[in-house]
Design brief:
This protein is globular. The strands form 2 sheets. Strands 3-4-6-5-7-9-8 form a 7-stranded mixed beta sheet, covered by helices on one side. It has a two-stranded antiparallel ribbon with strand order 1-2. The protein has 2 domains: 35 residues, no CATH class; 144 residues, Uracil-DNA glycosylase-like domain (Uracil-DNA Glycosylase, subunit E), CATH 3.40.470. Helices cover 27% and strands 20% of the residues. It has 182 residues and is α/β, with parallel strands linked by helices.
């Protein structure tokens, strides 16, 4: 499936581009094409056994890095949160194509820890504003880790919480760097 986005809408262009663009009076607005940040598995994919995959997610689950969030209003992140997410992981040499992101607010996605672990087989899991107890995990404090047999879970704030409180953002960044680099 082609993931190329095409638009001549100036608002969409502004949202899609990070560089400054200057308009030339009297010139036609150019059409801008951009690729999405990572593969989006927005319909259940067929796996090698021919059955539909259990989760709708974005990115690559084979790398072992998984971000779990719960945004009912968006497929993954709000536009502001997506920008912050991409900058954050980019600073640690990751990108949307080499991590997996799953939104548990999507009604297709099971909110069951065993199924998440079985499907994604992650080594490093970041809960972005998702309470561990909602997945039947033990209580994990914010910006704290739980080391399991297979994976380490880092529980932290949603990006919206960090936007509202700079101290939460600083606490997140310090621990997240350590978590990803370990």
């Amino acid at each position: 499936m082609d993931k190329t986005l095409t638009t001549d809408n100036p608002i969409a262009i502004q949202a899609l581009m990070s560089e400054t663009v200057f308009a030339i009076p009297g010139a036609a607005m150019p059409i801008v094409e951009t690729l999405t940040a990572g593969p989006i598995h927005d319909t259940p994919q067929q796996n090698p056994t021919g059955t539909a995959e259990e989760f709708i997610y974005q990115g690559d689950k084979s790398t072992g890095v998984l971000f779990i969030l719960r945004y009912p209003e968006y497929p993954y992140f709000s536009p502001q949160a997506e920008e912050a997410f991409l900058k954050t992981i980019g600073a640690l040499n990751l990108n949307a194509g080499n991590v997996a992101v799953v939104n548990l607010a999507n009604p297709h996605n099971p909110n069951e820890w065993k199924r998440i672990m079985s499907f994604f087989n992650p080594k490093k899991i970041t809960l972005l504003g998702v309470e561990p107890t909602s997945l039947k995990l033990p209580v994990i404090g914010h910006n704290s880790y739980m080391h399991g047999k297979v994976a380490t879970v880092f529980n932290t704030f949603s990006f919206e919480e960090m936007f509202a409180d700079v101290q939460k953002k600083k606490m997140f960044w310090t621990e997240f760097k350590s978590f990803i680099q370990s």
